[in-house]
Specification:
One of its GO terms (cellular component) is nucleus. The chain is built from six helices and four strands; from the N terminus they run H-H-E-H-E-H-E-H-E-H. Strand 1, helix 3 and strand 2 form a beta-alpha-beta unit. It has a four-stranded parallel beta sheet. By secondary structure, the protein is mainly α. The longest helix has 15 residues.
């Protein structure tokens, strides 16, 4: 009996393909974002800031105030905090008094804050900062007109720069707020400045 000839290629018709499975990507939590930034920079996370951040993914930092006062952060430690702050759109007041910041740390802060249209108040009191920080702050006030107040008591910022910054802040406060459409409105937003923050002084 002759051997059977092998059958021809099977048609693709009627052959069911296995169902495609889609894996939903989980949004990282703010704690994970911060810890990842620290790892990339070779830094140890600041425990106080870490504990303020939500543990669950997709959960925003809900407070309008981020208070890191009396917490040593330093020029290196501020970098991953600023990276995380880019994902915290509710923050309108940033308290960094007594953080061990120097001019370089403030320069990093200003470069980041220029991209934060929601930020209105920064407290840099009791940091060892001087003219280098003032130059960066002066530039920030022209780049981000939403910033209405900066506290800088007990710093080494020269008097002439204090006057310049106070004038720039006053000009920003006189600017009408702009909605997403870019059209000015007559309504003035409520200040996010915390009641516990000290008033800005040129002294």
């Amino acid at each position: 009996m002759p051997p059977k000839r092998p059958g021809g290629p099977t048609s693709g018709k009627g052959v069911r393909k296995p169902p495609t499975t889609y894996t939903k990507t989980r949004a990282p939590s703010l704690q994970e974002v911060y810890m990842r930034s620290c790892a990339e920079m070779g830094l140890r996370p600041n425990s106080a800031f870490l504990n303020m951040l939500p543990e669950k993914g997709g959960v925003d930092y809900s407070s309008a105030i981020l208070d890191l006062s009396r917490n040593y952060v330093g020029d290196k430690g501020i970098a991953p905090i600023l990276s995380t702050l880019q994902r915290m759109p509710n923050v309108r007041a940033l308290i960094l008094s007594e953080n061990g910041l120097r001019n370089h740390g403030v320069q990093l802060l200003c470069a980041s804050a220029a991209q934060l249209p929601h930020l209105e108040f920064i407290d840099l009191s009791d940091n060892f900062i001087s003219e280098g920080a003032a130059v960066a702050l002066g530039k920030l006030l022209t780049e981000n007109r939403h910033i209405k107040d900066i506290a800088f008591e007990n710093t080494r910022i020269p008097v002439n720069w204090r006057v310049k910054m106070l004038n720039a802040l006053e000009a920003n406060r006189c600017q009408p707020p702009r909605p997403p459409s870019g059209r000015p409105t007559s309504a003035r937003p409520t200040s996010a400045r915390p009641t516990s923050a000290r008033p800005t002084s040129a002294r």
